[in-house]
Amino acid sequence: AAPPLFQSHEPAGMSWWQRAVRRRLPVLGWLPRYSLSCLRLDLTAGVTVGLTVVPQALAYAEVAGLPVQYGLYSSFVGCFVYCLLGTAKDVTLGPTAIMSLLVSSYAFHDPAYAVLLAFLSGCVQLAMGLLHLGFLLDFVSCPVIKGFTSAASITISFNQVKNILGLRGIPRQFFLEVYETLRRIGETRAGDAILGLSCLAALAGLQAMKSPQIPPFAPGFQGRSLPTARNALVVLAASLVAYSFQVSGSQPLTLTGSVPHGFPPFRPPPFSKAVPNGTVPFGRMVQDMGAGLAVVPLVGVLETVAIAKAFASQNNYRIDGNQEMLAMGTANILGSFFSSYPITGSFGRTAVNAQTGVCTPMGGLVTGTLVLLSLAYLTSLFCYIPKAALAAVIISAVVPMFDARIFRTLWRVKRLDLVPLCVTFLLCFWEVQYGIMAGVLVSGILLLYSVARPPIKVLEQGVLLVQPGSSLHFPAADHLRDIICDRALAASPPCSVILDCHHVSSIDYTAVVGLAELLQDLHKHGISLVFCSLQVRGQPCTAPALPAPCWFTRPRQGRGDIAVTSRWWQQRRPLSVSQR
């Protein structure tokens, strides 16, 4: 459970503006009650997450197709901003595998485009938070998310196979990448392959130490504390191996190369780009990024809010979705002034943060400080990090994103949900934006189809009893009318119709017009229509007059005979079916 410090608490007597400031600056809620015990917990969690984020940041920059220092540039501003504006104690903002994949697709491996994309994405996210547009995320269904993350897992993993094998000049488009990698597999560098596979095995072994079935190596040795720092340990060991080869005068490994020393310069994001033939203006850069200006901020918000909700539920505290969007938008905007590419919440680092007992978002302040220290003092050592080791870190991080069980689960729960899942999964191998947009479109079509074709139960017991399973809206009007007309007129002799509206909680104007036309059709054939179980709002309605014979039922005392009335729209209480 969340510590009492982080529970929402508003002192009595606060004015409206104080409550507004408190909502926009959540740090004011917990900072006055901050204690030394919380500081110890936050220091431990912050350092642990820092040991994870530094090697991951270097690796994710490779996924984004950017120089490795941009991963570190993107890893500290979000930590500082979220400490002030975030509403979840566990969440950490920074570069992630999925966001790096999107940046690779929309920034064209160009730092100028990546930084501008961060700024514009932050503006979109900030606007969504201010306008309370978080409900738009509800239209991205779970099958679409699972299809996208599973495809991203495969794409990112295979993208790193070339670094494991030491291959160069491999295209980044997935299908061409698979073809070229298999064609040139004979050119594999033995040193890179051996080191890469060894790092993968070491990471898998350290991860397995989390299992409760594996006992500590020795009394008093907390073996299960190693998995949280496994990335740093493996990268450090691989760097020592590379350094030993460098000292001996032979280098069989492909290294990261030199990393610029010091902090990134503070400057506005590039609103134009100099090229040999002139300058690419801002409008052209925006046009080049295209759908990325919608996909990147939406995926970022979706990932962060989903992670925050999951850990808030697990640790018994509440978050504010709109405030989370404000925090992330602010982090991306400010980060772009420090050469950051788009960031979002990281599930893996958030899990590490929660497991090490973080007490408040102050843990992010420690993590950000650790990243700045590494930029100040450790960049000269980063040149010895083998690319195969970073590739192993990425693969071990993204493989768990592939959820093979979701296919079987959806087959058992609702097979129709496999359609948006498979559409998203397959098209994401072509282009990420097409996969996401197609998945959302298919999900929307399935949602609209359920509105246009609600379940309708028809029973024949002397009369035709028709029971719509949900509310009636305009796409369903003709469908309901056709079913009633076909079944009522097909009977010999034609039978009266009872429309049981027990499950109809709302009905729109077009549906009312359709019912009026249905009444006219039935009246021509001498068939009566009875409405029962109506949920009436109790106010007069300007709907078109319904012609006789139109009957409505309500409960009666005594024998419970059907009562007839012509005042459907002015009934003041719910009506129900009554039988003899």
UniProtKB/TrEMBL annotation:
Annotated keywords: Membrane, Transmembrane, Transmembrane helix
Stretches assigned to the STAS domain: 461-535
Protein name from the UniProt record: Solute carrier family 26 member 11
InterPro entries for this protein: SLC26A/SulP_dom, SLC26A/SulP_fam, STAS_dom, STAS_dom_sf
Entry's Gene Ontology BP terms: transmembrane transport
Originating organism: Pavo cristatus
Keyword Acetylation: no
Transmembrane segments annotated in the record for this chain: 41-61, 67-85, 115-137, 229-245, 291-313, 325-344, 356-378, 384-406, 418-449
One Pfam family, short name: Sulfate_transp
GO cellular component terms attached to this protein's record: membrane
CDD domains named in the record: STAS_SulP_like_sulfate_transporter
